[in-house]
Amino acid sequence: MTSAAEALPGPSITTNNAPANLDDPANVRRWLQENHPKQLALLEKFQIDLRLGRILSSTTPSGGDEAGSNIGSNSSTHQKYQYGKERRLVTSHTVELLRSIIGPTRWKTAAQLLTLLRGLANELHDVGGYREPAIGNMVRRVMFIVRDEADNFPSGGGGDVESKNMEKIDELSAQVSTKLRVSPSSTSAPGRGKELSLASMLWAHPQHVTMKHSRQQSGEGISDMRIRSDSFGSTDSGAVNVTSSNSFGCDTAATQIYPPHYYMQWDKLRENVMEAIEEVRGELKDLHKNINDQATQHIHNGEIILTYAFSSTVEWFLKTAAAKKRNFQVIVCEGAPHFGGHAMAKSLAEAGIDTTVIHDAAIFAIMARVNKVLLPAHAVLANGGLVAPSGCNIVALAAKQNSVPVVAVAGMFKLCPLYPHEGQDTLNDLISPSSVVDYSLMGDPVLSEVEFVNPVHDYITPQLIDLYVTNIGGFQPSYIYRLLAEYYHSDDWD
User: Which of 82, 306, 373, 393 has the fewest Cβ atoms within 10 Å of its own Cβ atom?
Assistant: First the structure.
């Protein structure tokens, strides 16, 4: 006689009672739940606040309210977030979350810490972090710090210790190498068919290999290894699958193999990483000050400057120039349909700056009188392109037609190692068209057949941008790729 549970059809449920380890980003949540429930509670609170937009209306971790965060009481939380909210606030909370999780948790090696960070990135991406690329950028920045500290792993410390460490590194290297199957070459000598060729030895270095664990139908566990290049003929394509690393939030089952010394324990690693995170926090704290110090280099007396909608970074940049006795005029595009330009113009006028608000339709007509265009930034892409509030692309095109220089003002936390493969859809989002058309009008037979698209951002090609003003200086779009190498590791770009 079978029980009711046995009689019910459906998939079988298996329970994994084995303790979670930091060997796969997918295990990070369960690892935190089993070993660090307080840190998991911090992560879940951050996820809820991020999803509901509470971070945007709270104070900074240092306790101070961010200025320039209100663009109108009738705007929705999402609209405020995209137009005029101080996005450094979200970034500071992200760094604070990483610091609170990395500090107390019991990871032992750089490889475990990188796996923990990748798992946290996946968790944040799943709850809407894709709308704020700066969150992923901060995780990549911390991962770069960890890699940099691990690469500076001391090789000294006594003959016995050094010898023991080298033995462990050689053992880890051998384990990685034995996982690769190399087909015999027609030119190889007998008995040497399974030796690695020069190409496969180079590409078998741990940072170029990723592993993906799966199970066969028979229940046996296998390791399906993939290499980033499929151009070498010394590998057996039947035994080795070729793949690439996956982006944050896409394939959480992939486990990356790191260089052997990343698996070594180093007592000072935690201390050095925490000190570097504090430096990042200090950089974010002084971000606007460092940007504003360059205001007088780009704004001169008698200039007419055009900007679009609301941006606290551009607002403070202009106010700083005015405070340093620069006499100039500002033309603000109203930024329909959210009309953040109205709040921007009001704030600048209260600071004593000669300000004029124009309709977006008048951008091309007024551009002939403009000396310089200042644009806000949502993200700076790897090719030097700019993701900015919707409508900025029209401004950039008009400026290009009239040979007016376009300057984008952005903090380095907006530097994003992504390429615009999707064109205008890159890092874009569509929101409710209620700000464009009233729902009560949708009963009209003509309007009911119209599809209303309300994008949040525009993608601006690097050919339309003349200069980026950041907290570490001014750079042309062609130099962005160099900054990426200084802020993120290439293995963490995806």
Answer: 393
- Using the predicted structure, report yes or no on whether residue 29 has a pLDDT greater than 80: yes
Q: Residue 443: is its pLDDT beyond 60?
A: yes
The alpha carbon of 183 is separated from its chain's Cα centroid by a whole number of angstroms, namely 40
CB 426 within 8 A of CB 418: yes
Q: What is the mean pLDDT of the chain?
A: 77
Would you say 62 and 97 are in contact if contact means Cβ atoms under 8 Å apart?
Answer: no
Q: What is the 3-state secondary structure (H, E, C) of 224-276?
A: EEEECCCCCCCECCCCCECCCCCCCCCCCCEEECCCHHHHCECCHHHHHHHHH
In this structure, the number of other CB atoms found within 10 A of the CB of residue 61 comes to 17
Show the beta-strand stretches assigned E in 320-363.
329-333, 354-358
Whole-prediction pTM: 0.73
Find, among 185, 203, 205, 186, the residue nearest to 194 by Cα: 185
Lowest mean pLDDT among 39-43, 208-212, 377-381: 208-212
Alpha helix stretches (DSSP H) within 64-218: 77-82, 88-102, 110-126, 133-151, 159-178, 198-203
What is the residue whose two structure tokens read 């200090």? 282
Per-residue pLDDT averaged across 315-340, rounded? 94
Q: Which amino acid is at 343?
A: A
Q: Which residue, chain included where needed, has tokens 């280099």?
A: 297
